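Chapter summary example.
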Amino acid sequence: MMIRSFFSGALAASLLALGCAPQAQQSGSTTVESNKPGTTLRIAVIPKGTTHEFWKSVHYGAEQAAQELGNVTILWKGPVQEDDREGQIGVVQDFIVQQVDGICLAPLDSQALVPYVQEADEKKVPVVIFDSGLDDETHIVSYVATDNRVGGNLAAKRMAEVLGGKGNVVLVRYVHGSESTFQREEGFLETLKNDFPDITILSSDEYIGAKADEALSRSGQVLRRYRDDVNGIFAVCEPNATGVLGALQDLDLAGKVKFVAFDPNVPLVNGLSDGSVDGIVLQDPVKMGYLAVMTMAKHLRGGKVEKRISTGEYVATPENKETPEMQALLKPKQHGE
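The structure predicted for these 337 residues follows.
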């Protein structure tokens, strides 16, 4: 599968040109007072967490956008763990009080963050949502993300491919309230149900948590329950998949139970070579961070932005993992490199 270019030439040109626009403009409810020569915009970027490799690559992309624009400062701050809703809410509120020029937010909860995004909008701090959506998009500038339902569709097709179209499969879920992973879960189930009637879902209601050690324990319980029947398992994000891989190894099921993951890290990428991982659905986190900041900068300078911006979905397999396109996504650059 060929990867799309890092960003389209037309989009990049328009965004970068806009980044140099000198005059203050009115855009929606936000007056851009700081758009003067020599003035630097302060854009807060708030991830779901700060420890996993995915977010470090988002950070890299955000900083790349700031460097190209030349007059943007990225304020990067988020909770350490991806289950700290109150921590993320506190970060959002803090940046509202600081009156940053704009916020790029990956919400931990599709409902819990809605009132705080509304508060930001009412206080003239525009918000671009990235990675994971909100139930109410009334008060956002744009949503920059993977089409996660399509990602789930791709995971199901890869699972069906490695199973030869028949078998018993387990889906392990992430946490309640995460819109991005919910879409992956539903896309996976939808595709298996509609296109692969000879594949049976043994379990699809187990939430195994946001931490790898928690996912290891809980997925191990699920695998023990179904070990005599399970032929394949799908994990919907990096910490989940890391835990599942560990559980498969602990139970001597690695390479025996087909495993499709979502998002890469070193153990999962190595698994494509040693036979323990059969596919990894990939996003482009660098592009996501880049376009989130570029979209906010464009909005702040009075430009029209799309309400929904897709950053692409891909599948790495043992067969295609060495191609340059897949290598760029399996090992995306990270902040600090």
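To summarize the output: The first strand starts at residue 26 and ends at 27.
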